[in-house]
Amino acid sequence: MKKTLYKLVFVAILALATVAPIATFATYYTTTQAEEYANLETEILQTLDADKMYSNIKFLSKTPRVAGTKQEDAAVKYINKQFESFGYKTEIQTFTYNDYTIPHTIQLAIDGFPQSLTPLAFEYSANGNVSSEVVPAGLGKVNEMKSLDLEGKIALLQRGEISFVEKLSNVTAKGAVGVIIYNNTADKILGSLGAENEADIPAVLLTQAEGKALMAHLQKHPDAKLH
Fold it and tell me: What is the residue extent of each domain of the chain?
């Protein structure tokens, strides 16, 4: 066990030495101590197995080891087994973290609307299945929504001036149950909330053309329900 620990320390020092001047690790040793460490270094180097190192790397690099996947679990078990084979007592500790999974189904339809809509995923938006009236709410700024009733409604917003997160936060505070944001330019729109957030309502993105067409439809059919 003691010898294995020395191996680990020495290999760690070798790894660090590749990115920092060796003088960083300089320590004063007596002649006897220097000889002992030199002998230990030689002994360790003689036991290193390059083939085994590359074998480990080859096994671990076969597939991506994304957190939370079966591949990551297999890599953990493999590394754990290697340490146990060296005589170490090991413990695998688990922890939780937030993650985003791209939705496999995004659908958007409004009563009486003649064209099909192609909504895009809003990264870190919550899942949801909502049917309600749609209320145009400008850019989603607080002062724009003072007189609007968004309780239980879906808010239709234009991109711009304030962040996506702020837009969702503002309409959620007014009781909205869903959000549609359309682009303010003809370019392709991509959107992210950056991370998990408190605005726990579904949100999707539309192109500028789709948003304008939807706005025109709502002017003629203000009570139309969107699903």
Answer: 2-85, 120-226
Q: Are 190 and 120 in contact (CB under 8 A)?
A: yes
Place of tokens 């339809």: 109
Q: What is the pLDDT of residues 114-169, one digit of tens each?
A: 788 888 887 777 788 888 888 888 888 888 778 888 888 888 888 888 888 888 88
In contact, 117 and 208? CB cutoff 8 Å: no
Which ranges in the chain belong to alpha helices (H)?
A: 2-17, 31-47, 50-60, 70-85, 164-173, 208-220
CATH code that applies to domain 120-226: 3.50.30.30
**One-character DSSP codes across 53-90:** HHHHHHHHTSS---TTSHHHHHHHHHHHHHHHHTT---
Q: Does the model's pTM come out above 0.70?
A: no
Spatial neighbors of 195 by CB under 8 A, at least 6 apart, are 98, 124
Can you say how many angstroms the Cα of residue 197 is from the centroid of all Cα atoms in its chain? 13
Token pair listed for 87:
């005589």
